[in-house]
Structures
1.
Amino acid sequence: MDADVVVIGAGLAGLTAARHLQQQRWSVLVLEATDRVGGRVRDAALPDGGAVELGAQWVGRDHAAVHALADELGLRLVAVEEVGQHLHVDADGQVQRYTGHLPPLPECARADLGAAAALLHAGAPDLADDTAAGWLVRHVPHPDARWVFDHKVRLELCAEPGQVAAAELVRFAADLHLPTFLCADEAYRVAGGPQQLATGLAAILEPQVLRFGCPVQVVETTDRGVRVGTAAGTVSARAVVVATPLTVAARIGFAPPLPGPLDQALRRSPMGTVIKAAVYRDRSGARPGCPPALLDGLPDERHVAFATADLGVPHAGYMDGALSAGVAAAERVIRIGSRDVIAS
Ligand SMILES: Cc1cc2nc3c(=O)[nH]c(=O)nc-3n(C[C@H](O)[C@H](O)[C@H](O)COP(=O)(O)OP(=O)(O)OC[C@H]3O[C@@H](n4cnc5c(N)ncnc54)[C@H](O)[C@@H]3O)c2cc1C
């Protein structure tokens, strides 16, 4: 046996699992496909210091485990304050500035929103077998009210309302009262970047635990446990923890095969598509820049999450939003220029 347990994937889930196992005195091996820890948590260094989040960025108020881990690692969580106005740019390039939790909506759209929220709070019976889009068409007549939910789905789940279960709307209805519904959970950022959560966790593990460049291809159950086959060789253990995204787990060859319903569920859990473009302003106040390569070649139909961070002092100011209208819209926002953004 190479270890008691093999963990596949060195994202936050895999590292956390490895840590718990180690605390219980199990020997662990973490097999990671790439050459780094963190997975979907990844930062890039800015030319003038600081970091910008390429992947995960926001720590919600109720992300208790992340709060505890940041505390333990001595990382500072910075509360992001709502200042200034929101800047909403629609697919046609119309710019709206507003304060408060929603863009300006006609009275009847607000009434529709309230009615939909009440229905969702009360546990609407027809949620189970429908998509969010189907449910909204049936229960929310005003298109502007539907847009609010549609936008939330695109923003948070990076998917179209027709692709996600109607049950997701219940969670969103619970957020409707929050000061900024469209970015309800965005409460804190990690000073210096969230990747430190992963590197900090990795540092707690015994050094020989992590093996990089080991994409797992096969998990075979044997009489004595499991044999895990990677491009770099095979390891054996008593048990395996798969800590990859679901859709990636579906590509691992399991022998014997996974139970049919589980296999189908994994295959039917695709990831959303999101591309983040980071725009920064350097400390000297020079003109804002967006490395053009960031936007080159992005297909228009993708969702472009757009985040800027003025990191002169860590997180001194910020603008964050999401565009569901693709690259053309992102470029329009970038062309708005720093003066407008700052003034807004
Ligand atoms: C652009 C973006 C923005 C996000 N923003 C936020 C946010 O603001 N707040 C928030 O809370 N969450 C956010 N998330 C979600 C958050 O990043 C993830 O939920 C979290 O990082 C998932 O961690 P994980 O360990 O489960 O998976 P991952 O981070 O995906 O880790 C899986 C690991 O497994 C490895 N792996 C995959 N296949 C194999 C294989 N066959 N063999 C070996 N290794 C393998 C991968 O390389 C990876 O290192 C965001 C995600 C993205 C992509």
2.
Amino acid sequence: MAIRVRAEAFTYVAHALGVVAAVMVLVWCIHFRGGLAFHSQTNKNLIFNIHPVLMLIGFIIIGGEAIIAYKAIPGRKEVKKVIHLVLHAIALIVGIVGIYAAFKYHNESNIANLYSFHSWLGIGTICLYGIQWVYGFLVFFFPGGPQTLRSESLPWHVVFGLFVYILALSTAVLGFLEKLTFLQSSGLAKYGPEAFLVNFTSIVTILFGAFIVLTAISSPPGVTDDFNYSAIYNTNISWRCVLLEFKSLLICPN
Ligand code: HEM
């Protein structure tokens, strides 16, 4: 059975969910948590608040938009490739600054570093993201690998990229859960508006990620080319093909 779905519809839903998630995390950190600051002598929590804002808006949302750039933006392949790698670079840099903010908050508040599963997963994810970006840059952009290496690397680039992105989503949701648990242990109402806001931000984040992945594996608008995500699937998504891809180590029967 083959289900044929075009990417455009998914991209609109993904953009809308990204805007909603960004607004929610800003309302949480600014309205409920007191605001954002890189330096504060009196309230170190303001330094921490930079972390979820930059990780969600920078790493997850801009990173997600980078993934779907080939499907969401009309135009030539070369232009889309540059937008894809630039958005990923922005996501990576903003993600590194966001992690720096978490370390700064810990160090200035005398809290231990890297003790939680969230932090381990976070460091692993950002390292894999960086490796994926550098490999993609060298092989597909500059200086660019030989044709055989590019075509053999492409399916791995797509699957590994989506794997790292799902790791990033998991890390972010764990982060929301961890912070909310800390706050509830210190007296925050379990069914209060802030708790609902944080939990719904996690839900919207997961939905956003789901639509990014759906967009990435669905049909591109217009004609396909050799170096976009559609290279694996040609013009139509086939779920049987997707399953066979994973089962037979990315050898598509088409
Ligand atoms: C993919 C996105 C994210 C990554 C890669 C990430 C990564 C990290 C890292 C590496 C640390 C350790 C800092 C240290 O030990 O000094 C950390 C701390 C923390 N993060 Fe995140 N984070 C992400 C998103 C979030 C989000 C959305 C929240 C929501 C509030 C959050 C909440 C926390 C909390 C509460 C800590 C301090 C406690 C701990 O170290 O686990 N994180 N994060």
